[in-house]
Amino acid sequence: MLDTAVLIALLLLSLSMLGSLYRILKGPTMSDRVVALDLIGVQIIGIITLVSVMLRTEAYLDIVLLIGILSFLGTVAFAKYLEKGVVIERERSDDH
Amino acid sequence: MNVQTIIEPVIAGLILLGAVLGLLSSIGVVRFPDVYTRSHASSKSSTLSILFVLLGAFLYFLVYLEITSVKLLLAIVFVFITSPVAGHVTGRAAYRSGVPLWKRSVRDDLRHVVKPEASQRQSASLEE
User: Fold this and answer.
1) B110: DSSP letter
2) Does residue A89 form part of some domain?
3) CB-CB contact of B19 with A13 (8 Å)
4) Is residue A25 part of a domain?
5) I want to staple B34 with a disulfide (CB 3.0 to 4.6 A). Which of A95, B48, B55, B102 is the partner?
6) Chain A neighbours among B 86-115 (CB < 8 Å)?
7) pLDDT in tens, B74-112
8) Is A88 helix (H, G, I), strand (E, B) or coil?
9) A5 in contact with chain B, both atoms CB, cutoff 8 A
10) Domain segments of chain B: what residues?
11) Which residue stretches of B32-69 are H helix?
């Protein structure tokens, strides 16, 4: 029963990933694509967790944390680029 | 009747509920009309779906393999903290970069607050 549930969940998550891909390809503005990329990061976390359950190993759980951190950083960098035009801004003042 | 038999439907239900919530969130991202409603669909329900999936996996590793996976707990806490932040940041970037609202939106509370600052920033960048 558990294996069947994991397989169905994998199928549903893959379908939702296809939906996000559609939004990335279609999205009228760049912000749509950033939102869909963030969603894809979250769905990758779910898929890797389910694969780890299906293979009965905990070897992939490091990747879950890693992709969570990387996806968050990527989203923040993209948002900052959209908002200000640069990712890393240098605050320079004339005082020193 | 042992613990595994009892906990198996719970884990299956948690994982399936998480997957269904993820599918609903993706349908929202495909169907909604503008960035802000899409961000509403993608941030909240996907966070809940991933929390359910990770909690089911944590229970699975705890009961079946007798591993208390601290990494999964950390991942739950991390996703729970960072996903709202990411949603806020993307929505804010969308508004400040001038993405229009849906044409049938009835209310825009930031209209008089954000736009002057944005034009100020543009004039400042022009002066540079």
Assistant:
1) T
2) no
3) yes
4) yes
5) B102
6) 86-87, 89-90, 92-94, 96-97, 99
7) 999 999 999 999 999 999 999 888 888 888 888 888 887
8) coil
9) yes
10) 3-101+108-127
11) 35-63
Task: Specify the number of domains making up chain A.
Answer: 1
At B40, list the tokens: 């509403």
Which backbone phi and psi does B124 adopt, to 5 degrees?
A: -65, -40
Encode pLDDT of B5-17 as tens digits: 899 999 999 999 9
Residue B90, amino acid:
T
Cβ separation of B26 and A34 shorter than 8 Å? no
Q: List all residues 6 or more positions away from B57 whose beta carbon is below 8 Å from its beta carbon.
A: A49, A50, A52, A53, B15, B69, B72
Instruction: Assess if residue A24 is contained within a domain.
Output: yes
Across the range A11-28, mean pLDDT stands at 92
Task: State which residues form the domain around A53.
Answer: 2-84
Residues B8, B59: Cα–Cα separation, whole Å: 9
Which residue did the predictor score with more confidence, B127 or A79?
A: A79
- Let me know if residue A39 belongs to a domain: yes
- Residue A29 pLDDT: 87
ipTM (interface pTM) = 0.86
